[in-house]
Fold this protein.
Amino acid sequence: MSEVVHKLVIRNIAQILSGKLEQPLIDGNCIVAVDGRISAIGEGKDLDTGGATTTIDANGTWISPGLIDSHVHPVIGDFTPRQQQLNWIDSCLHGGVTTMISAGEVHAPGRPKDIVGLKAMAIASQRWYENFRPSGVKVHAGAPVLEEGMEEQDFRDMADAGVKLLGEVGLGSVKAGETAARMVGWARKYGIQSTIHTGGPSIPGSGLIDKDIVLEADADIIGHINGGHSALPDDQITCLCESCSRGIEIVHNGNERAGLLAMRTAFEIKQTERVILGTDAPAGSGVQPLGILRMIAMLSSLGDIPAEVVFCFATGNTARMRNLDTGIIEIGKPADLILLDQAQHAPGKDMLESIRQGNLPGVGMTLIDGVVRSQRSRNTPPATRLPVIC
Ligand SMILES: [Zn+2]
């Protein structure tokens, strides 16, 4: 019998956003987590809430799985050379993001493009984010950018060393569908997940990746299907949604109208489980600490989709498409949670209606692995009600 090290009880929750499309809202006003993992969900009076080491009074706020940003470009620690900013990941935590996935550490000054160098950087990046979580945020990084000349053995070497992701295919010298497909296949064989840049060039040195290249490369995720920045023509976006079963990633740093088109197409073909959200930050358009919340409000309001459904695109969907052990509120899952409420003086009868009208919610608290990481957000509009640590 091991002793309970840490028992978290969150009570007086208004309602629970599950992160699961099949049932986005679940009943219950209390969540218990033991040693960082959810152990009970339901009505507080029915649950064993005794012996808590941390008790949080949600004070009538809503709870959601921590948001997942499916597309970021970190370099090292909590610093980005892209816009010379410190603590951008901490700022995103204040926007409700508890997990980030690297689409390549492409902004590293002097990024090596020779094969031994890019492998070394991928392994080092994977290590330094595994060993150091900025403000507790789970940053999955170490995502090499494919260059011409890589062989199957290179993918095996990286997988053996702990690399689990590829950076956006197309940001390096590999731009032809056939070469990309071969390398993506090797990556998949060794358990490395892949994503592809979709759309026009992002920065000087990158190129156009159109629907034919995306379909031929067959990466796991159609990275920023709405462009980063420039989107493909509408018919190519709908074709991508209809012609494959890969992740439909919509980003803040892309074309919003094209993002709405991709989401609507996913609804039309009844494949909303493929829709995931990212920011693509840091980028030329900067860092977007509220980017995922802004995507949720934009897609819910302009797309006229219930907010609780859009929350699933930024939580459970991403976790499932990316094989992450987080993103849903379910017994056994890590207690990566955010407490939110309707922003002060925002219209709407409750938080979900307010978001559906295009307003951001206020973040009142974030927790990662059951540990409080931030309280009242310094970045969102102030929430009407705030949770308190008892
Ligand atoms: Zn890109």
User: Anything to note?
Assistant: Residues 115-131 form the longest helix (17 residues). The chain has two domains: 7-65+328-389, 67-289. The chain has a mean pLDDT of 96.
